[in-house]
Amino acid sequence: MLSVLIPIYNCDIRALTTVLHEQLMSSQIVFEMICLDDYSDKKISALNAEIEQLQFTSYHISDHNFGRVATRQALAEQANYERLLFLDADVMPKSEHFIAHYTSLLASAYDAIYGGFAYALEPPKDDFMLRWTYGTSNEQVPALIRNQAPFKIVISANFMITKALFITLNSQITQRGYGYDNYFGALLKSNKNTVFHIDNEVYHLGLEANESYLNKIEQSVDTLLKLEINKSIQDTENTLYNTYKSLKKLRLNYVFSWIYKSFKNSFKKNLLSSKPDIRVLQFYKLSYICYQDLNS
């Protein structure tokens, strides 16, 4: 038995749900597919309402915008089955055996199973290069490598988890914002949960424009810093966080803060260009978190 849960915000999910439904019906398992719209534009919602024609599928619309965390929590609480498969609305399964790969692990002892992320081989238009470049270098990682540090790359856009565990951990995220996947991974690790990665990717189709994505990166770093200030993170495999902590211990955070203040415009020029350098992005994030820590 499997509950497929899809949080939605301003995204047409008809193609995704059609593909998933075909695979679910072929699998011959007991399933439900629940889609919760977080108060999208009415034109999008009207299109998405068509999916209710699919068997064992329901589509709900929130009465206002609650955010990603609360929407996922509501989906989990509505689910009738013990295993939850969360998928973002802007993805598409890479394999025609996508559901079968997950259902083969329904009886496994793993608490959470992550399928992975994939990106189109063809680069997008220049204005979307930052998201694509970061995704292909940092998120499109084989399961063999992900399993070496299982709590490091935990992408909530494609994973299966037990219902009780998700509700327990997700309820500890009490703020709205971007970048809480890192915290969820830290919670899984500190809770000593078993995490397993498989090569069962979804294509990430909803690439953000460069400037929009850079803003989200800054938000995710702000989230990480807020969690550190509140002493919410006990243990994590996040490279940025651990490097920042090491720099702070050596008081090198002052140097990196100065670097951000002095070179942020040069960094941004590269990152918003048609050929962003991931090394520049990593340096930008590290100097940004040091600057924010000392100046916020």
UniProtKB/TrEMBL annotation:
- CDD domains documented for this protein: Glyco_tranf_GTA_type
Q: Which UniProt keywords apply?
A: Transferase
Q: Does the keyword Transferase apply?
A: yes
Matching InterPro entries, A to Z? Glyco_trans_2-like, Nucleotide-diphossugar_trans
Question: What's a single GO MF annotation on this record?
Answer: transferase activity
The keyword Metal-binding belongs to this UniProt entry's keyword annotation: no
Q: What is this protein called in UniProt? A: Glycosyltransferase family 2 protein
Name the lineage. Bacteria, Pseudomonadati, Bacteroidota, Flavobacteriia, Flavobacteriales
